[in-house]
Amino acid sequence: MTSEIRHATARDGTRIAYTDTGTGVPIIHLTPFGAGSLEFERLPSTMRYMYGVLQDRHRLIRYDPRGTGQSDRDVDAFTLDALCLDIDAVAEAAGLTRFAIFATTSSGPVAIAYAAANPQRVSHLLLWCSSARGTDLRSPSRRAIDAIAREDWKLYTEALASSAFGFAEAEDAARLAEILRDHTTPDMRAAFYGTIEGLDVTNLLAKVRMPALVMHMRDYPLVPASGAARLAAGLPDAKLVYFEGHSLFPLRAELMRSMQTMDRFLGGDGNIAAPC
User: Fold this and answer.
1) What range does the domain containing 33 cover?
2) With CB atoms counted within 10 Å of each terminal CB, which end of the chain scores lower, N or C?
3) How far apart are CA 160 and CA 146, in angstroms?
4) What are 239's strand-pairing partners?
């Protein structure tokens, strides 16, 4: 499935690359930093299934955040305000007045801050293996993997991708590792996470008035599940769902269940076929 890559311009002049596919409830997806490709065919099979379901049933807008992929790479610094400008730019370019936000891991604090500040624009908030506090995204396992980045960028991307998919999904992990290497640099990734780790948007949770779906892989070592209950408890209208597994992305039956859960949350019937 080929998607046309378009560009939006943020208010600070940064160009943001995005794709816009499907019809229905608009969803802006915030990927982990550098971990998504706008070229659908390049994605790991698990991600192709997830995005395929979403764009078949809804309108899916994916983008490369500043500093990654086909968006402007020359970024002086990352701030919460600047990362929220990326969302605004894409929404305005796509002509959206109201939309859902689906955020994964490190993009969660940005999504929460944007939703709290823009209740009139955000219809639903979906959070996957994320947290309101950047420090929750820095488990001992994550710190051990990140230490490799300073010495061996290729090994680092392979270790991170294997943690995301599990070693049994070697082809998906290899695809993600290649995307990470192509879409950002060690310095840019370190700068981004330096910002994210310093964020704590817990005080904004009470301002997130739209329905929220907090999803977490119960045994994913890089983002401990203990933070998911705190996150859901702090949101006024949240549902918490755990999925079984050690990787960031659920496999087989759990993968289908996760998409059924998301589809129902967005107003669909949840009648979704299993991945091939």
Assistant:
1) 6-265
2) C
3) 8
4) 213
0.70 exceeded by pTM: yes
Q: What is the pLDDT of residues 26-39, one digit of tens each?
A: 999 998 888 989 99
- Residue 219 is part of a domain; what is its CATH number? 3.40.50.1820
Give the rounded distance of the alpha carbon of 88 from its chain centre. Answer: 16
Strands (E), 95-155: 99-104, 122-128
**Rounded Cα–Cα distance for residues 185 and 34 (Å):** 9
Q: Give me the pLDDT at residue 227, please.
A: 86
Residue 177 has pLDDT above 70, yes or no: yes
Alpha helices in 70-107 (DSSP H): 80-93
Has residue 205 been placed in a domain?
yes
Q: What is the DSSP letter of 139?
A: -
Cβ contact 182:97 at 8 Å:
no
pLDDT in the model for residue 139: 73
Spatial distance between the Cα atoms of 114 and 101, rounded to a whole number of angstroms: 9
Q: What are phi and psi of 29, to 5 degrees?
A: -100, 125
């596919």: which residue's tokens?
Answer: 21
Q: Which letter does DSSP use for residue 221 in this model? A: T
With a cut of 90, say whether residue 165 has pLDDT above it: no
H or E stretch including 63?
strand 59-63
Can you tell me the distance from the alpha carbon of 147 to that of 72, in angstroms, rounded to the nearest whole number?
26
Do 202 and 133 contact (CB within 8 A), yes or no? yes
| Residues 108/35, Cβ–Cβ less than 8 Å | no
